[in-house]
């Protein structure tokens, strides 16, 4: 928390005026929309607890280790009365996503991870916004960008930034879902914004499109089946049953968003930090698999991909190469790492070669 206060000065009209100014400042800082929510997440908390009880979080132990701090903002930051929620579009000017997905020799990286780490970008902007607020009215606050137990989608929904789609992401009628969310917890009793109704109707395109059937029910994703979880969060071997469905997706998955009708309104990012780096929007799998650990560390520095490390990066690429056409370059790349120092990588390389019938049949899936 920053500097706090005992008694808030200022009238309700003054707070309403400040809320309007906050939204204008947010737009000046590059956010597409800013809203204000209260901290009552009782309904969302019930859904979260049921999801955790069902084990849908997989190995993401951090989803429950903070208890109710995730769903009760004032427990995480005592004194919190309101949450200022902001969204920023990230869809870059990049190679067409479907074209890359349909070329099994190419590597598909989720569109949010093609550029620099969004955490730093959004945090810096939110910090500037918070600074402007306390300059006008001293207050206690804390900034969050996907870095603490915060129910960002539920809060953004309450703040009127959109509604939760059946794929569990926030949807906006004017911007689809290709955007990041960030929050400022504050003890200012700002007027709250009205939520918007949902507009998915009977559409279930996202559920049908999921390659692994991870959207097990409307608004419910079983992370254990989700390609984003399998390629980013999972630290162990990827279950063999899901490897063929992963296709050429080496970091994350956007399929549920790509088919969503609302994403015809998705906005291209204005932020230059989200521009693709190192050709990751359409690079050859073989080329990426030949990167050394030093090359990975240097090229992925400042990227959200850096967090999975070279071992899991190689694991994911090995799976994608197993799903790629059995060209000489693909087989050669895989064979070059049959004796990789990592047992995890070796396992996935062997599986990939078996997919190409290079190993004995009994080793194949």
From TrEMBL:
Ligand binding (cob(II)alamin): 70, 146, 170, 181, 228, 253-254
- What Gene3D superfamilies does the annotation carry? 3.30.70.20
Which positions does UniProt annotate for tRNA binding? Answer: 235
Cofactor binding note = Binds 2 [4Fe-4S] clusters per monomer.
Stated EC number for the protein is 1.17.99.6
Protein keywords:
4Fe-4S, Cobalamin, Cobalt, Cytoplasm, Iron, Iron-sulfur, Metal-binding, Oxidoreductase, Queuosine biosynthesis, tRNA processing
Compartments it resides in: Cytoplasm
Positions of [4Fe-4S] cluster 2 binding: 210, 226, 253, 256
Recorded hits in Pfam families, A to Z, give: Fer4_16, QueG_DUF1730
Q: Looking at the keywords, is Iron present?
A: yes
PANTHER family attached to this UniProt entry: EPOXYQUEUOSINE REDUCTASE
Kindly state the subunit structure of this protein: Monomer.
What's the protein called, per UniProt? Answer: Epoxyqueuosine reductase
């Amino acid at each position: 928390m920053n500097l706090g206060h005992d008694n808030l000065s200022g009238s309700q009209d003054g707070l309403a005026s400040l809320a309007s100014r906050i939204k204008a400042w947010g737009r000046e800082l590059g956010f597409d929309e800013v809203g204000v929510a209260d901290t009552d997440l009782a309904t969302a908390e019930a859904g979260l607890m049921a999801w955790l009880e069902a084990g849908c979080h997989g190995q993401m132990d951090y989803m429950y280790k903070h208890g109710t701090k995730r769903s009760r903002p004032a427990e995480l930051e005592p004194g919190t009365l309101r949450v200022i929620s902001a969204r920023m579009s990230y869809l870059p000017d990049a190679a067409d996503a479907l074209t890359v997905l349909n070329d099994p020799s190419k590597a598909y990286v989720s569109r949010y991870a093609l550029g620099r780490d969004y955490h730093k970008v959004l945090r810096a902007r939110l910090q500037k916004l918070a600074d402007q607020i306390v300059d006008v009215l001293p207050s206690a606050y804390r900034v969050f960008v996907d870095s603490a137990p915060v129910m960002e989608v539920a809060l953004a929904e309450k703040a009127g930034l959109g509604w939760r789609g059946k794929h569990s992401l926030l949807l906006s009628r004017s911007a689809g879902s290709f955007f990041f969310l960030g929050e400022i917890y504050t003890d200012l009793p700002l007027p709250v914004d009205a939520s918007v109704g949902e507009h998915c109707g009977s559409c279930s395109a996202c559920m049908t499109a999921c390659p692994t059937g991870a959207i097990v029910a409307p608004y419910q994703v079983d992370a254990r089946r989700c390609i984003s979880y399998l390629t980013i969060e999972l630290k162990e071997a990827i279950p063999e049953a899901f490897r063929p469905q992963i296709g050429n997706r080496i970091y994350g998955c956007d399929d549920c968003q790509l088919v969503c009708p609302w994403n015809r309104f998705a906005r291209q990012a204005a932020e230059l930090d989200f521009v693709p780096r190192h050709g990751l929007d359409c690079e050859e799998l073989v080329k990426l698999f030949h990167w050394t650990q030093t090359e990975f560390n240097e090229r992925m520095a400042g990227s959200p991909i850096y967090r999975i490390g070279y071992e899991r990066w190689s694991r994911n690429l090995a799976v994608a190469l197993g799903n790629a056409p059995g060209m000489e370059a693909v087989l050669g790349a895989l064979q070059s790492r049959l004796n990789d120092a990592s047992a995890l990588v070796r396992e996935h390389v062997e599986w990939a070669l078996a997919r190409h019938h290079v190993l004995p049949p009994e080793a194949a899936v």
